[in-house]
Design brief:
The protein is of the alpha+beta class. Among the domains are: 14-123, Beta-Lactamase, CATH 3.30.450.20; 227-384, Histidine kinase-like ATPase, C-terminal domain (Heat Shock Protein 90). Helices cover 52% and strands 22% of the residues. The chain has eleven helices and twelve strands. It has helices spanning 2-25, 44-50, 54-57, 71-84, 125-191, 197-224, 236-246, 248-253, 274-295, 326-329, 347-358, and strands at 29-33, 39-42, 86-95, 101-111, 116-123, 232-235, 257-262, 269-272, 301-309, 312-319, 362-367, 372-379. A five-stranded antiparallel sheet has the order 2-1-5-4-3, with helices on both faces. A five-stranded mixed sheet has the order 7-9-10-12-11. A hairpin with a 5-residue loop joins strand 1 and strand 2. Helix 5 (125-191) runs antiparallel to helix 6 (197-224) and helix 7 crosses helix 9. Residues 167-382 form the Histidine kinase domain.
Length: 384
């Protein structure tokens, strides 16, 4: 029996040495603590990491090696490990013998039979530094992209303003011509022997109507360019009609028929940024208008079909301009991509940004038998 006990003790010592050898080869700090958090054993990795010898660690605890603000949380973690059996990935700042601070992640496991705590410590200083650096670079990239987006928004506005000035010229040309003819008529009327006051009243009313029309045109375009980031309720159909009015003269001059078709039961009330929606829609209509004019399509048309698809309202803007070539179909929404000689390639890109980022919807394009079909999909019950 004495020999057996001696052999068992020798085996235990051998196992203990093997276990310590394994501990010392580990890639993390492994230590054994008593119930007060004092060190009973620490592997080589932990000793090197904390710059203490084992003899010095006997006088320390996981609490004393913590930075002051983590002393009490470390004591709580030890107590929690004893009560609950385990504490995983407890993060704190440790202080080495030389005073260097390191970020550490610790897991503690309580061994009830020996009343000891096994603590595994990982130095995550470099990981945190990498994460902070990555976060900093991401923030820089976000700021850079935000700045680029703002520049593109400004460019889009300038491009739209150029187009709108041309549109105003179209809208005003006809009433200005009419006013010119009326003024010439007044000269003949004043030279006539019998002055017709009834005709004069009719001329006055006609001139006032023309001037009011021109004034309303300025108001329409002024409202279109008024920037507002405040969401509000608006009627989609009214907003579509207001948008079409901006290019109504061009459509008529080019003999392009624009039709709005609405499916029964569609809820047209929406909560969002109305002017941005109008800008996105106008960019799409302008794109169809330009292509139809350039191709001189016979019986040209643009259709806006409004349907309900479960929880979404869908606007399909289609034309008969022949569609988009397959090689350009995937590029159509990319910034600065254009097939026009004087295009800037911002309009459709901005439309997609407005619909998908600002209105949380979706904008896509496909070809039909007649031409291109742009689909705007918006949540029908967008609320505050």
């Amino acid at each position: 029996m004495h020999l057996q006990l001696k052999k068992s003790l020798s085996d235990l010592r051998s196992k203990k040495e093997e276990l310590r050898a394994v501990f010392d080869l580990a890639g993390n700090g492994i230590s054994i603590l008593n119930e007060e958090g004092m060190f009973i054993y620490a592997n080589k990795f932990f000793q090197t990491m904390m710059e203490y010898t084992m003899e010095e660690l006997y006088k320390e605890s996981c609490i004393s090696l913590s930075s002051p603000e983590y002393a009490e949380p470390s004591r709580t973690a030890v107590q929690k490990a004893i009560e609950e059996g385990i504490v995983e990935r407890f993060r704190k700042i440790c202080v080495t013998k030389s005073g260097k601070q390191i970020n550490a992640s610790m897991s503690l496991s309580y061994i009830k039979s020996t009343n000891e705590i096994v603590m595994i410590t990982s130095d995550i200083t470099e990981d945190i530094k990498y994460q902070d650096d990555l976060k900093r670079r991401i923030n820089q990239e976000v700021k850079k992209r935000t700045k680029q987006y703002e520049i593109m928004c400004h460019q889009s506005r300038l491009a739209s303003m150029g187009e709108m000035i041309e549109a105003i010229a179209h809208q005003w040309r006809q009433p200005l011509n009419s006013l010119s003819i009326i003024i010439q008529g007044l000269r003949h009327l004043s030279n006539s022997e019998s002055f017709d006051f009834k005709l004069l009243n009719e001329i006055e009313n006609e001139m006032i109507n023309k001037i009011n029309f021109m004034s309303e045109t300025i108001d329409d375009f002024s409202n279109f360019f008024r920037t507002s980031k405040e969401k509000r309720y608006f009627n989609l159909l009214d907003s579509i009609k207001d948008t079409i009015r901006l290019v109504d003269i061009q459509l008529k001059n080019e003999n392009i028929k624009l039709t709005i078709n609405i499916e029964d039961g569609v809820n047209l009330e929406f909560f969002g940024l109305e002017n941005e929606f109008r800008q996105a829609l106008l960019n799409i209509i302008d794109n169809s208008l330009d292509v139809l004019v350039s191709k001189k399509q016979h019986n040209s048309f643009i259709n806006i079909d409004i349907t309900q698809n479960e929880n979404f309202i869908e606007l399909n803007i289609s034309d008969n301009a022949g569609g988009i070539s397959s090689k350009n179909l995937q590029k159509i929404f990319k910034p600065y991509f254009t097939t026009k000689k004087e295009g800037n390639g911002i309009g459709l890109y901005m439309s997609k940004m407005i619909i998908e980022q600002n209105m949380k919807g979706n904008l896509s394009v496909r070809n039909s038998q007649n031409g291109a079909v742009f689909t705007i999909s918006l949540k029908s019950k967008e609320m505050k």
